[in-house]
Amino acid sequence: MHELGLMSSAMDAVLQQARSRGAQRVHRIVLRIGALAGVEPESLRFAFDVVTRDTIAAGSTLEVDAVPARARCAACAEDFDAGTDYVFSCPRCGQLSGDLRQGRELELAQIEMS
After folding, report:
1. pTM score, whole prediction
2. Span 105-114, mean pLDDT?
3. HEC string of 19-81?
C-alpha cells in the first residue's frame, strides 16, 4: 500500500509548514490527485488517519480534489478527456495522443491551520 508512504510524506510537509508558521493545530488538508496518479482514495484516507494520529493534525479533515485526465491532440489541437485506460484517442479526429496535459497530479494544495 504505497498510499501510506505518500500520506506520510505529505504529512511531513504539512507539519513542517505548520511548525514554520507557529501553528498549534491543523484543521484541514486538501490534496489534488489526478485520475492517473495510481492512488486509491480510500486507502489514502485510511493512511491519513494513521499518520495524523498523535500529531497537531489529529482530527483534521482530508479533502481530495479529483483531477480528471486530459490530453491534447497534436493533429487537430483539440484538448479532450483522456479517461483512465491509458490509450488516448482524440474524439474529434481519432488520432492517438501521448500528450497528457493533466491527470497525474499528486499535490498538497491547501493547509488550514491556526
Report:
1. 0.85
2. 96
3. HHCCCCCEEEEEEEEECCCCCCHHHHHHHHHHHHCCCCCCCCEEEEEEECCEEECCCCCCEEE
